[in-house]
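From the pipeline queue, job 12 of 40. The input is one protein chain; the requested action is below.

Action: predict structure.
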Amino acid sequence: MTELIKADREALIRVVKDRAKLAERDAHTRTKVLLAEVHDLMTAEFAANDALWNDLLLAQEAVAKLNAQIREQCAAMGIPAKYAPEIGMHWHSRSLQFADKERRAELQRLAEARLSALTETARVEIQRQALDVTERLIVGGLESEEAHRFIETLPTVEDLMPPLSLADLGVKRWQPPEDAAAQLVTPLTPADRKRRRILRAIEANPGASDRRIAEIADCDHKTVARYRRAGELPAEPEDEA
């Protein structure tokens, strides 16, 4: 890259961009061609005398022999040949799974959706490769260390779009308290039960006043206020007494 002169770099960049534009147009054209091919496959008809079906034509011979036997038996019974029943064989010229118009329309919509996704994937990949070549041509001609450092600081898609966590979606995971094991084996005192009642009441009603929490937990509102001041509960809303 360092051996290329500036004029060569600029010419190559123009060629890369022009080829990328042409490749994107080709991708859209190919989408239409592939969709037409899918349509042809669904509407294709096959003839009874195609080489693929030669072995299956034995069925026609078997039907002919059976009809001859029926006519002979009818003649023996005095029934004229023209009134003798016949066994017929029907040849489907098109696959039965595509005979239904709604089914064909459904498959065509599916093909369109998949080809649209493939087209978009191809377009992004074309742009990615064109940018990669262009970047190599341009960066290869940079002489200062500052310019190279600037290129390296450009953010990537991963930097700009970090993965989502459940917390980002507002999902809160419950974690047991650190002393959960001790609580399970230690009998609760009346004071402990009272405290737990107040904690549960405030947890279920975070915006309620001290008096409302006291009514729910069956305790004095001053006790609720004392817990809040101690930092064990959220502070009481300022607009409520």
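Job complete. Residues 207 and 237 are 7 Å apart (CA to CA).
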